[in-house]
Amino acid sequence: MATEVVVPTLGESITEATVGEWLKQPGDAVAADEPIASLETDKVSVEVPSPVAGVMGEHAVKVGDTVQVGALLATVGEGGAGAAPAVSAASAPAPAPAAPEQPSGDAAAALSPSVRRAVLEHGVDPATIKGTGKDGRLTKEDVAAAASAKPQTAATSAVAPGSAGVTSDGGNATAGRESSRREERVKMTRLRQTIAKRLKEAQNTAAMLTTFNDVDMTAVIEARAKYKDLFEKKHGVRLGFMGFFVKAATMALKDIPSVNASIEGDEIVYHDYADISVAVSAPNGLVVPVIRDAQDLSVAGIEKTIGDFGRRAKDGSLKMDEMKGGTFTISNGGVFGSLMSTPIINPPQSAVLGLHRIEDRPVVVNGQVVVRPMMYLALSYDHRLIDGREAVTFLVALKNAIEDPTRILIDL
Fold this sequence. Notes:
The structure is a single chain. This protein is α+β, with helices and mostly antiparallel strands and 412 residues long. It has two domains: 124 residues, CATH 2.40.50.100; 203 residues, Chloramphenicol Acetyltransferase (2-Layer Sandwich), CATH 3.30.559.10. Helices cover 28% and strands 24% of the residues. It is built from ten helices and 19 strands. Strands 9, 12, 15, 16, 17, 18 and 19 form a seven-stranded mixed beta sheet that branches. A hairpin with a 2-residue loop joins strand 13 and strand 14. Helix 2 packs parallel to helix 3 and helix 7 packs across helix 9. The longest helix has 18 residues. The radius of gyration is 27 Å and the shape is globular.
């Protein structure tokens, strides 16, 4: 008897998703609660677990299909662990024609379709790559990283039989080069489509403006170097810079409440709490989970929350509710090397803070030119709600707290 696997409830107001990839193929052994498919929603990827143990049946939908909540995805049939449906000699299909070379071994059997394609395109051995996905599974990013690290072989002058290229009499190789040019069309994920739509709406709706400042990171760097070992030993998490910035931002938002507000119709909604959205990297792009009531958390509590978000974003286990809401966003492009940017507001929020890379620059301190580790700050804001004076005041308050972290401790 087969058990149906249907699209689960995906969260408030979310009624459909796109099939991202199949994690189990027909005939594969499936354990109870083992993920068999990945669905992409407007906010995050969701893995669908098998309700029972058995053998994977036929897929009812294909990768890229849009499915409604409650729709049939596949079936799981009865069978022992690792058992595949038996095929009699009489009914066995005739041998198939030779196929292009595929990755071999148990490692290849566990690959998702998208990862299998990446393995073939890059010509790497999946058995030699350490997976960083959930349960150690390979991701497309793992394959790409392994391919980029692989030594490049020197080009040879020999041309394969039947191909165009340089001939013994000095013929033109243009045709050979053109034959190696490729294009690939990949449908935008639902998450990427939603990001594109929301960001464009923000540009069309808000009167966006960006103001800049810079901050001397000397004090925070020294504090981190002095206490990072004790901090990690006591709290079980590394002391980073985001904890300082989130805490400093909650203090500045309290002083400048319009930066933490939003517009709904013809009303301004002020919040007496700071739910801080923080952008973290996930396999399919950036996701923005929310630190709830960040104003009540210590630096340690903030760092623990961010660390947990980062781990679960990587393995795809962030929940829908953790992505909703938020009154203010902090995006750290500095981890990717960005010197300066103009971040885009995440509606219905009215402001977003952009952090950037730290680099030594000459600055004047007490009449002397000295070298200090400096970072540019960027605040993009909705000018319909936030005046330039308020935006600048917010950045100055943030700058003061970071340059003198004692202010964070005594709430100045």
